[in-house]
Structure formats: structure tokens, C-alpha cells
Amino acid sequence: MDWAKKAEDQVSKLVSNLEIDKKDDSEADKKTGEEADGASPAETSLMLKIIRKGLVESKLDLEVQRQDPNSPLHSVKTFEKLHLKPEILKGIYAMGFNAPSKIQETALPLLLADPPQNMIAQSQSGTGKTAAFVLAMLSRVDTRLTHPQVLCLSPTYELAIQTGEAAAKMAQFCPEIKLKFAVRGEDVEPGTKLTEHIIIGTPGKVLDWGLKFRVIDLKKIRVFVLDEADVMIATQGHHDQCIRIHKQLPAKCQMLFFSATYDKDVMEFAQHIVPEANIIRLQREEESLDNIKQYYVRCRSEDEKYQAIQNIYGSITIGQAIIFCHTRKTAGWLAGKMSSDGHSVAVLSGDLTVEQRLAVLDRFRVGLEKVLITTNVLSRGIDVEQVTIVVNFDLPMDAKGRADCETYLHRIGRTGRFGKNGIAINLIDSEKAMAICSAIEDHFKKPIKELNADNSEEIEKIGS
Ligand SMILES: Nc1ncnc2c1ncn2[C@@H]1O[C@H](COP(=O)(O)OP(=O)(O)OP(=O)(O)O)[C@@H](O)[C@H]1O
């Protein structure tokens, strides 16, 4: 798979630069530490305590969680019991997966059953949904046929690439399985027919290739996966494109919808278009916040929010952090200001080219930058293991200015992945922002505590 090789080469090149850049980074960090100390020693030391405690707990946890029947990582089965092909099994062991998570062991027997079963599945962020559907995709490929048979749709370019890279790793011992990305930047010769077995892409491109250029025969697709299914159904543009693709699929096509969240209307619609679906809901949403501690910091203005970030920069860069802003403009402004103050930060928003977006994300993945500033474009699905902190520079709102609780859950789910602990910090600079924060707290029924450096009681309670 050429594209996988290309991605690997790019990453190893970046890794070889790591040592050089790390030196610069540590200089910046040293400087930051001094600045932060000067700015607010109490706040900095509070954050350090929270984070250190969080990191220590994370290390202890995974095996304990596997034994706990209430944990999303609990498993009673081994991968062998799931009857995967030996080459695929070898691939997942090579990735370091020892045992299936709950969504994997619950979904896979149904996904691999004959006759194929449809499914609408919900499981919290970071619990291994990708491997669940990718293993089903790989298992269903018939390599004797040389046309696309499996189609997986993702809402963003980055997520499609990440899913394809995970699929390539799982299929590393199945060289006969061929995969193609249908994303911006990938071209096809109109009039030709694609021969790859699996297509992973974004809806617009797949629609072009299926209906305009006719290089994919959608009538021959036998497995259709909709990742982040709720946003694909609820967002106008994605919705129309997905429905047009869905209409072309044959009646017998196996349909698999996955997401961490589904609201009532979206679930009803999903059930309407996925006939006789098996529905798996592993946790109520509020339970999925158990491994992420949430805080808010009161600020009086945008400048004070910036100051708060400055104060905690030294602490948040113990691991890696993602900072979410409401608009590209704020993300750009924040990144510019932090860079000019000597911090090493990356920025990723929709105004970059796809190549730039991928390069930024690759650098962040290998740790060249410890802080990534972004917008909702990265709120879903992106998996970077070392992210210990998510900061909401702006709280997520819908078009009417109300709390967007689902986006909040997806954003903070960029940390606390696969049994790790995470920390979410919300910066509040107005009564409206406070009201949104309270609405989110009420919705999930989980406390969002004030991070108040003067409150020694709070420091004592951290981690309890
Ligand atoms: N069985 C397993 N054992 C160990 N690690 C696993 C296993 N399954 C998945 N992982 C790892 O867990 C992390 C999270 O998985 P994944 O990205 O699939 O989560 P997700 O449920 O799709 O989350 P989101 O809702 O945010 O998209 C990944 O780094 C993945 O490699």
C-alpha cells in the first residue's frame, strides 16, 4: 500500500528531526516556566498537582479496568474467540492489542455473522470503535473480486486518513487487500474503474466518484460504514450527500453506523434508514465522562483567557494538549500570540490545505509540538494517545448560541483515550459562557469544578 508507506516515511523523517526540535522546545518550555512562575505561581502549582496525579493514575489503570464489568474496556473474550482470519489476528497483535474492548467483543460476533447483520453502535470516545468496524471491513473483503466492496465514510479528511492508516496496520499481513482513499487531493481517471477492495473517504468525494465519474459502482458495495454517524446524519451538507450515496447501495448491503453520541432524533432517523439494525448502546453519555476531570477557570476578558493559558502552559505541556476555539480567526490569533511569546504551538483549521493539515497533525502525533490549537474540525475521532489535556478556549455553542453538549463530549474525548485519565479545562469570560458551562454540567450531571488556585481544599480533593 503506497500511501501507507508514504505516511510512514513522512513520520520517520519527522522523528529523526525530533531531537533537534526538542532542544528548541525545551528552551521555550524553560522560558515558559519562568514566565508562568512570574504570572501566577499558585495557579501553576495547582495545575502541576492535578496533572501529575492524573498521569500517575493513568499508568495503573488499564488492567484493573479490564477486570471491571462496568468498564468500556472490560472483556471476557480473547481476540481468538472472535474467529478473525489468522493474518488479521497477527496484525492486531502486532499493534499491541492484547484483548478486545467491550464494543469490540460485543459488536464483532454480530458484524462477522452470516448472513450479515446491520448495526447501529454507540460507545464512548476512545474505546476502540475504529478497530471494531475496521476488523469487520477487512474480514468481509473477497480478494478474488477486483472492485470496491467496502465503503467507509468519515466526516473529515483527517479522520478518513487516520482510519485508513489503522486499517493498513491491521491488514499489514494481508498484502492482497487493497485500499484507496476518496478524499480531497486524490484523483481518478474518469471512465476507468477502481480495483481496490476498500474505499475510505469523505461523502462529497465518494459521491463524485460514484455518481459523477462512475469509477466506483455503488451497487456492488456489500459493507457500508458510517463513522461519526450522528454528525453525518445531523449536519445538512453531510446528510444530503450520505443519503444520496445510501440510496445507491444494494438492498443486501450490510450497514454499520458508529458514534459516541446519538440524540433521540438522530437515532430514530438511523433506525429508519438501517433496516433491522442491531442496536448496541454501551453507556449512557454521562457515564462516559468518568475518566475525565473537568474544570473551569473564571476570566474577565479574552486577554485574561490568554493569560490563563500562559499560566498553565508549563503544566499542560507535561503531556500534550489540544486547545479548541470557536472560530478559525480566534485559533489563528491565539496561535500567533503564543508563538510570538516563545511557545511552540501548532494550529490546524479549515483554511489550511489538506497537505498542510496532515503535516500539522503528523508533527503533533510525533510530539514535535506539544500544543495544538484548533476548531471543531478536529473535535471528533482524532486519536493522539499522549493528549492529557483539552482546553476549551471557547465553549462549544450551536448556531443559536446554546450549549452544544455533543460537541463538548467529543472535544473532551480527545483526551482520556482507551482507559487513560484526562483533564478538561474550560475558560469562562462572560456570564453567557458561564451559563453554557452550567448547561453542560446539568446535561451530563457531572461536576465541572472551579479551578481556583487559592482554594487549598480543592487541591486536596484532586483525584479523589
Ligand atoms: N483492543 C485494544 N487494545 C489496545 N488498544 C486499543 C484496542 N482497541 C483500540 N485501541 C486503541 O485505543 C485508542 C482509541 O481507539 P479509537 O480511536 O478506535 O476510539 P473510538 O472509540 O473510535 O473513539 P472516538 O469516538 O473518539 O472516535 C486507539 O489508539 C486504538 O489504537
Automatic annotation (TrEMBL):
One GO cellular component this record assigns the protein to is:
nucleus
Hey, what's the signal peptide range on this chain? none
Q: Which InterPro entries match?
A: DEAD/DEAH_box_helicase_dom, Helicase_ATP-bd, Helicase_C-like, P-loop_NTPase, RNA_helicase_DEAD_Q_motif
UniProt domain DEAD-box RNA helicase Q: residue ranges: 77-105
Q: What is its EC number?
A: 3.6.4.13
The subcellular location is: Cytoplasm; Nucleus
Q: Where is this motif: Q motif?
A: 77-105
Q: What is this protein called?
A: RNA helicase
Q: Which organism is it from?
A: Glossina brevipalpis
